[in-house]
Amino acid sequence: IDLYQVHWPNPVIPLASTMLGMARLLRTGVIRHVGVSNFGLKRWQDAERLLGGPVLSNQVQYNLVARGPESDVVPFAQRNGRIVIAYSPLAQGFLTAKYDGSKAPGGVRASNSLFLPENLARGAELLNGLRDVAKSHGATPAQVALAWLIRRPNVVAIPGASSVAQLEANAAAADLELSDEEDRQLREAAERFVPLSGLTAMPHLLRARLRTG
Q: What's the whole-number mean pLDDT along residues 157-178?
């Protein structure tokens, strides 16, 4: 196995026990590299110390509107030759710029406050920015959002795909070269986007569910 990841921090099993098992797998050649997922920086560093070697990757939620990893996890990866694997790189579809609030989304998006009409309105600058950059490149907003993400050194993305065409479109984003100015415009628009979230968003989500029955 090229890369074997601990998918979530386990509050029951000590990290030392987990890394002991990973070290054994490395020694016996069952795996080539150890990775983790959803680890904060300190826990990632603790994992390396306990393993006695590099923990190559950390798979975390990272996209234009979820940029927490930029504060410490991404810089650590860049300084030390590690990899950040960005999951939900399109924020469950919010960054595809396909949703306008006229119709309530289904599935997992129904409980995602990003898709509230109020948040789609608040995110208009960012979503329109994605559309504008996409138009100038003959691409889609989703491809632009992916290209913005993987432009960060030591960052790769794992977008989902429900069809071969979508898979191919995602892969084509790797060939999309954004300018520094486009990168800056998208970053600044994302910084100005302040969505309703947590307890503030709950009444809006409840009303949305009542409307859809």
A: 93
Is the confidence at residue 209, as pLDDT, over 70? no
Is the separation of the CB atoms in 73 and 58 below 8 Å?
yes
Answer whether 166's CB lies under 8 Å from 146's CB: no
Q: Taking each helix axis from N to C terminus, what angle separates 141-150 and 180-192, rounded to the nearest 10 degrees?
A: 100
Distances (CA, A) of 183 to 2, 26, 92, 97: 32, 39, 21, 17
CA 81/CA 72 separation, integer angstroms = 14
Q: What residue spans of the chain are helical by DSSP H?
A: 15-27, 41-51, 73-80, 117-122, 124-137, 141-150, 164-172, 180-192, 198-212
What does pLDDT average to over the chain?
92
What is the pLDDT, as a whole number, of residue 106? 67
Give the amino acid at 138. Answer: G
Does the CA dihedral 64-67-71-77 come out positive or negative?
A: negative
Nearest to 99 by CA among 52, 135, 36, 142: 142
